[in-house]
Amino acid sequence: MAFELYYWDGIQGRGEFVRLTLEHAGADYVDVTREPDRGTDEMMQFIDSSSEAHIPFAPPFLKDGGQLVSHVANILLYLGPRLDLAPRDEDARWFANGLQLTITDFVAEVHDTHHPIATSKYYEDQKEEAKARAAEFVMNRLPKFLGYFERVLKQNPVQGGHLVGDSLTYVDLSMFQMIEGLVYAFPKAMKHHDIRYPGLARLHDRVKDGPAIASYLASPRRLAFNESGIFRRYPALDIDP
Amino acid sequence: MAFELYYWDGIQGRGEFVRLTLEHAGADYVDVTREPDRGTDEMMQFIDSSSEAHIPFAPPFLKDGGQLVSHVANILLYLGPRLDLAPRDEDARWFANGLQLTITDFVAEVHDTHHPIATSKYYEDQKEEAKARAAEFVMNRLPKFLGYFERVLKQNPVQGGHLVGDSLTYVDLSMFQMIEGLVYAFPKAMKHHDIRYPGLARLHDRVKDGPAIASYLASPRRLAFNESGIFRRYPALDIDP
């Protein structure tokens, strides 16, 4: 039975971290809201349900038969071992989940660069505050997060270029998406990132060029980044540090 | 061997969600940075290590012998089954982790009410933006989160007053802390919360009055809320909706 992914149509968003894992594994899945005969209404029925026990707070969530799993890090924790994209040993699995939760925080901070005051309002209504928050992000938070992940790569005793253990995991796929999104949204701030964070740049390129991901990226299933998603290219927010 | 909790001294902060679970279970643990012969330096050695493979991004993290686990939701996922504070069935465990991750997001939004622009700056340097963000929080986000958790309680088929399944889990303990913190930080906004969210109020009171937690709350191990933590009482940010 196919996995069913529920996420907003029209953007990569948080759903993309799940999609990359499903695509890399060649898993049988349905992107429910993008199906012609299904759609967002079906997703909202789970969220608005007044009878289901396990209601999700927000998309993305995944259905695997009767099992519903919500939140990106939770979905990847669930899928990882099932798709052979989790570390094999227990110790490393706890570390992988911690890394994915750091990526979760990183994503939320990227989002807040364009929405520092109110998710319910437009970027244009909080542009001045967004400039201030983005400056803090580019100057302090971005180097802190990327510097940390570069150290994690460097201190992996296996030295195979993966964040955890000796083979590719869902955390590596998520890190690819972070770099890809940051380069899209902050081209000035990310200039020369490959010199400052060489391990992350190599990991990014390696994921991008892998056959399954390369084929996915060239397919219509990969939507382009746009200014409704998490990673938005607003020149006013992109500074050269 | 005792669990070792690493977190900033002087505040409840994110470490408190872990403490409540350890305390409720009567677990043998050491709060490392508060030990007279140990301290924050020892914590920073893990964070700044240039040789360890599994470095944490930030506190809190837990050591259980040789196993290091970082991030609140990850630590609770690890401790839950070991301290008999996780749901028994698999399906419910995935739901519990999803709920805990929603609490993680909720906590981050509480933090950002007083730091909407820059974590590296004082509240006083972003007070106007904090007022705008707090207004959004009180009017839109707070009712959205609390309304969701109230529905989760209501739709739990067991109807025993717990968020998941038929017995107390770490998620219930975290929800107690959320209500406690919100009432401290936003007394006006939380006025009559017990009428609007009666299930959550009952859950809060039940956790508070349980013997292990009541004893913990009366002990010097429970620090008071203060204006260095996540939940801060700034009258300028508290509005009557």
Automatic annotation (TrEMBL), chains A, B:
GO terms for molecular function: glutathione transferase activity. It holds the Pfam family GST_C_3. Residues 89-236 form the GST C-terminal domain. It comes from the Bacteria. GO terms for biological process: glutathione metabolic process. Residues 2-87 form the GST N-terminal domain. This is Glutathione S-transferase. The lineage of its organism: Bacteria, Pseudomonadati, Pseudomonadota, Alphaproteobacteria, Hyphomicrobiales.
